[in-house]
Design a protein that fits this description.
Chain lengths: 461, 455
């Protein structure tokens, strides 16, 4: 098959006038099922294969995707992509150029302890049923529970006109567990995700009973929770909330494409934008984590990218196009969900580095505030405002955790909030997630517990 | 576009798949075949610099063995062995699974009604040059509106989708449709402020786009978002534009009217049929046959005819959205609301065209009635709403202040908090200015009693 791909590259460059060409062929298998209240809704298996072609002609991109490895179809798609790119290149003011990159030849194998494809679907379903049953049995106010399971395995071939040639395995195991509870007119909801690029051993690290209990307990606890008071407050954020804050509020602004789109980090490189306690990384090298991989979809080795050091903006996440614009090196952040889409700048594992506080020290001195432990959704805007919904939170009174609050959210200006971080814990935890930016990417985020002396808490009380 | 697959080829592929699955031991079978093509000319950082063309085709087979459901899909459909191997994998998935006592069969064959304005051969025949021209016009319009506007991203695209479905109850059907769309996201900068991204778009099943309007509206919105002012915490009236309604309803109201949410105790509308759940000003139809609607089609994802379903009439809850599975559980008929992610998934329930019926107020009458209030466009964080309770806590960024019936200035960092199901009761007026956005067709609505959290 590599011959067919190489031929497509040759046609793009020699016949169709491409200055750069790459092909990414993929073969993927997926196993998925959905459980609702101990019922298997449907068990699914899929096989997908296709090729993504990307060419640069006179500084304009042409992209084509076809679900076929047939030589004739591929060659037609290549010339089509070149012709369309040439068409738009006539009007370019700033032709696109790519930062140089080392040529790589490599074959990366997945080495799971437990290969998902060796585990019978029956056994995967059996484990999931235990999760469901544990949730339902936890308390009779638990009214529903669900579980979505997915494993994805496959191989990607990446070849470009510069001589890079990479064959790389893909492996993801993921599940989302949900529960809802009801008492009188109060409806509550709880959700948890687990995910790994290591293998099915994920379920050894997260025993089924423990998952079921955790999700149910959170739903039940919220029944007696009260809405928080809206307004400014001091908060302690758990690693799960820190992760989504770091990802949504800072991470997206540090994606070089969004920075170029008027995001506020591009003008702040080298400047202090937050408390000196804040150091952030986006790291693709944490083996087994949900955002880890060896090479990105431009054939660039994934690295550990320092974004903010002691409150100073130190770097951005780049693909080859943005690295060229900033006069720097690509960081291995170009990712494509599959062969249907082009690679774009995506996060991998984004986290705040731990410092030296204990959890108790972070709570100390907060007379009235909140401890937000777990999030439900988050979003940020390029101008540096963010919102994070909270699915598990508690009041803090006189430095101690008190009663639970429900349906809280926090929001504010990202930069103001980074300046208001006045305590960073020494603990550390990472959480898997999925990030949407037109395409879905499997990512991870987290950090230690932190204290922020002022954010806006949204609540209906 | 590349030559599309013929109707007869797609139908016979689906029928062969059903036959093959039955032969291999399925008691019931359904096959869904998809042929989609999309072409897009992309705008990035102020210039047209990229092109996309995607051809995606595939087959999904759902089989049932003793009330146990299995599904398999592939996008490799040119290979003659494909049908049998996908059917075999669907059966193996079913065998790994557990019986569902609530399974009562695939849908029956029913007569279809024709749709209006869902296919335009002009879209299929478009040349990339036509799309480039439209994108150029859109960019130029934004620049002419105000040169300090920066168009971040956007594009002009055309798409063609055909699908065929067959099942062991005799369904064998084909439908096709087209769409053309253009969009522009822009921001404005001056020496003291950068605006949030402001967005406009146009989408149509026929080749009737207005890229110039999109470019100039996106630019106008961005300019009007400069120099935002802070807001005091208060309770106020707000006008929700279609952008805000789409965001707020997608994760709450649209979930609450799905029959499976109701059956799983995840909807506050359980036991509320026939009761007043919203202001008398609110009527919502789910209209799968709305002429030219973005979600209009002859049949849904399991081959059931699409239809018009009255969900809320003058504030009274009338019905829920059903697929075949949930309908049979309640002893009802499917409302034709099964959707699927092309060939990649099994059906689930979703609104088609969720039509919030227009009222009688012009936008300027709404602004006058709004008095001292806010108009809300884009929301952040609507997906963090609690779909079960309806509680939300979102950021409106930007939103604009209304004073004495006029839009005066933009506001920054405004949080809106409340409960969507209370909000439905507080709708005091509904506009005439409806437009479609995703699955929602809606006008502006005026709501009172919104909790606004400011600085």
């Amino acid at each position: 098959m590599k011959d067919v791909l190489q031929k497509a590259i040759d046609i793009a460059v020699a016949k169709s006038g491409a200055n750069y060409a790459e092909v990414r062929a993929q073969w993927l298998t997926k196993t998925m099922f959905t459980l609702k209240e101990e019922r298997v809704e449907v068990a699914k298996q899929g096989i997908e294969s296709g090729v993504a072609i990307r060419v640069l002609v006179n500084g304009a991109w042409g992209f084509a995707s076809v679900g076929s490895m047939d030589r004739v179809i591929l060659e037609a798609a290549v010339s089509d992509a070149c012709n369309m790119a040439r068409l738009v290149s006539n009007r370019l003011k700033n032709p696109i150029k790519l930062a140089s990159a080392p040529n790589v030849e490599d074959h990366v194998l997945a080495k799971p302890k437990k290969n998902p494809s060796d585990i019978a679907m029956e056994d995967k379903i059996k484990t999931a049923l235990v999760v469901n049953k544990t949730s339902l049995d936890f308390d009779n106010h638990v009214k529903s529970c669900g579980l979505d399971y997915m494993d994805l395995m496959g191989t990607s071939f990446f070849i470009n006109s510069e001589g890079t040639n990479i064959e790389q395995d893909k492996l993801y195991v993921w599940a989302r567990i949900t529960a809802s509870a009801q008492a009188n007119d109060i409806f509550t909801l709880s959700s948890e995700e687990i995910g790994s690029t290591a293998g099915y051993e994920l379920f050894d690290d997260h025993p089924a009973e423990e998952l079921g209990r955790k999700v149910a307990k959170r739903a039940i606890e919220q029944i007696n929770a009260k809405p928080p008071k809206g307004g400014k407050a001091s908060v302690v954020l758990g690693p799960n909330v820190v992760g989504v804050f770091v990802h949504e509020a800072v991470g997206h602004l540090a994606e070089a494409d969004l920075a170029l789109s008027g995001g506020l980090l591009s003008n702040n490189l080298g400047k202090q934008i937050g408390s000196s306690l804040v150091t952030l990384y986006d790291d693709g090298t944490l083996s087994g984590s949900f955002g880890a991989f060896k090479y990105d979809d431009e054939g660039i080795a994934s690295n550990k990218t320092l974004l903010i050091k002691d409150g100073v903006v130190s770097g951005l996440m780049h693909n080859r196009e943005t690295a060229q614009k900033f006069g720097t090196q690509p960081t291995g952040n170009a990712r494509a969900e599959d062969f249907r889409v082009e690679p774009i700048i995506r996060m991998r594992c984004t986290y705040m580095a731990p410092q030296d506080h204990t959890f108790e020290e972070l709570l100390e001195g907060i007379k009235e505030g909140y401890y937000f432990k777990s999030f439900r959704g988050g979003q940020a805007s390029l101008d540096g405002t963010f919102q994070v919904g909270i699915q598990e939170g508690y009041e803090i009174k006189n430095g101690e955790i008190h009663s639970p609050v429900r349906n809280a959210s926090i929001s504010g200006s990202t930069l103001e909030t980074l300046h208001k971080v006045n305590g960073v814990g020494k603990d550390f935890a990472l959480y898997p997630g999925r990030c949407g930016k037109g395409q879905t990417a499997f990512i991870c985020d987290g950090g230690p517990h932190i204290r922020v002396n002022e954010v806006i808490v949204g609540g209906s009380a | 576009m590349v030559a599309v697959l013929e109707k007869n080829f797609l139908i016979s592929l689906a029928e062969d798949a059903v036959k093959s699955a039955l032969k291999l031991g399925a008691s019931e079978a359904e096959a869904y075949v998809y042929d989609g093509q999309a072409t897009n000319i992309g705008i990035d950082l102020g210039q047209i610099s990229k092109t996309h063309r995607i051809i995606d085709r595939g087959l999904g087979i759902r089989v049932i063995v003793n009330k146990t459901v299995g599904f398999a899909y592939t996008n490799i459909i040119s290979n003659p062995q494909t049908v049998e191997s996908v059917a075999t994998r669907a059966l193996s998935a079913a065998k790994a699974s557990r019986p569902d006592p609530d399974w009562h069969g695939l849908p029956p064959k029913k007569p279809y009604r024709a749709t209006e304005d869902t296919f335009d051969s002009a879209i299929v025949d478009l040349h990339p040059e036509d799309l480039v021209k439209a994108a150029t016009n859109m960019l130029d319009a934004a620049g002419e509106e105000n040169p300090s506007v920066f168009p971040i991203e956007g594009g002009v695209g055309s798409g063609y989708v055909a699908n065929a479905i067959a099942n062991s109850n005799g369904i064998a059907a084909f439908d096709r449709g087209t769409i053309a769309e253009c969009s522009l996201a822009a921001l404005a900068k001056n020496s003291t402020s950068v605006t949030p991204v402001c967005f406009e778009f146009d989408a149509s099943r026929k080749y009737l786009l207005n890229p110039i309007w999109v470019g100039s509206e996106a630019a106008k919105l961005a300019i009007s978002a400069l120099e935002p002012k802070p807001v005091e915490t208060q309770t106020a009236k707000v006008i929700l534009t279609q952008f805000a309604l789409q965001d707020l309803f997608a994760y709450t109201l649209m979930t609450a009217v799905k029959a499976d949410s109701v059956q799983r105790n995840q909807s506050p509308f359980k036991d509320k049929l026939g009761t007043q759940i919203a202001s008398e000003n609110l009527s919502i139809y789910d209209d799968g046959l709305y002429p030219g609607g973005l979600r209009t089609a002859v049949f849904d994802a399991e081959g059931t005819p699409q239809q018009k379903t009255i969900l809320i009439k003058n504030g009274v809850l009338q019905n829920f959205l059903y697929d075949t599975y949930s309908a049979r559980k309640d002893g009802k008929e499917s409302t034709g609301n099964a959707v699927r992610a092309e060939y990649l998934s099994t059906p689930s329930i979703a609104p088609s065209n969720f039509h919030i019926l227009p009222g009688s107020k012009t936008p300027s009458q709404l602004l006058t009635e709004a008095e001292d209030s806010f108009i809300i466009y884009y929301l952040q964080g609507a997906h963090s709403s609690n779909p079960v309770s309806g509680e939300f806590s979102v950021v409106a960024n930007p939103c604009w202040k209304i004073k004495n019936g006029e839009i005066t200035h933009p506001c920054r960092g405004v949080m809106l908090a409340g409960n969507i199901f209370d909000l439905l009761k507080n709708i005091i007026a509904v506009g005439v200015n409806e437009r479609q956005m995703g699955s929602i067709i809606a006008p502006w609505v005026l709501v009172e009693g919104m909790k606004i959290i400011g600085k």
